[in-house]
Amino acid sequence: MQVVIAEDGVLIREGIKGLLQRFGHEVVAAVGDAPALIDEVRAHQPDLVVTDVRMPPGFSDEGLQAAIKLRAADPKLAVLVLSQYVEQTYAAELLESGRRGGVGYLLKDRIGDIAEFVDAVDRVGAGHTVVDPEVVAQLLGRRRDPLSRLTPREREVLALMAEGRSNTAIARTMSVSDAAVAKHIGSVFAKLELPADDDDQHRRVRAVLAYLRG
């Protein structure tokens, strides 16, 4: 998989680069600011972008805005955001685009295992959505009314769905049967009025993200 990395901290940038190369990925560019990220993606047309949120020139949300701009130009481009915090407005917008291609949002301080990180890279590159549970919690906190109809158990299932877990993995985490998980998911879809004919791969994530805009 060809990857472009955007991270203004040189040690972190080189560390991510070396790690991805170690696991067989080709890092075609590693840059330190948002304009360079856009330029390198246009030049190399990679499979995946791994980017920080805060980068030069303004050190606010340039990396995330660049990722959204790149996704708008190429919806199939996979994007994995690594950040110290949750930029709620643009995070929701980026994650909403997950129905068209792989997307992820992980908090740097909560990545404690190399294998877990590499697995997240692979899953996003393969077109899936990977979201840190803390990101899910903060985004859910922005607009609670649409979710008020859900039971606590359904909310728990919803959070696990947003992390990209399968029904079996959710069942194992919650110590319930696969059938019980399927029933909860069906109830979540019904209560949130998600169309049954939507793309199943991303319908699960939309259950969490569709009401987070604004």
TrEMBL record:
<protein>
    <submittedName>
        <fullName>Response regulator transcription factor</fullName>
    </submittedName>
</protein>
<dbReference type="InterPro" id="IPR058245">
    <property type="entry name" value="NreC/VraR/RcsB-like_REC"/>
</dbReference>
<dbReference type="Pfam" id="PF00072">
    <property type="entry name" value="Response_reg"/>
</dbReference>
<keyword id="KW-0805">Transcription regulation</keyword>
<dbReference type="InterPro" id="IPR000792">
    <property type="entry name" value="Tscrpt_reg_LuxR_C"/>
</dbReference>
<feature type="modified residue" description="4-aspartylphosphate">
    <location>
        <position position="52"/>
    </location>
</feature>
<feature type="domain" description="HTH luxR-type">
    <location>
        <begin position="143"/>
        <end position="214"/>
    </location>
</feature>
<dbReference type="InterPro" id="IPR011006">
    <property type="entry name" value="CheY-like_superfamily"/>
</dbReference>
<keyword id="KW-0804">Transcription</keyword>
<dbReference type="InterPro" id="IPR001789">
    <property type="entry name" value="Sig_transdc_resp-reg_receiver"/>
</dbReference>
<keyword id="KW-0238">DNA-binding</keyword>
<feature type="domain" description="Response regulatory">
    <location>
        <begin position="2"/>
        <end position="123"/>
    </location>
</feature>
<dbReference type="Pfam" id="PF00196">
    <property type="entry name" value="GerE"/>
</dbReference>
<keyword id="KW-0597">Phosphoprotein</keyword>
<dbReference type="InterPro" id="IPR039420">
    <property type="entry name" value="WalR-like"/>
</dbReference>
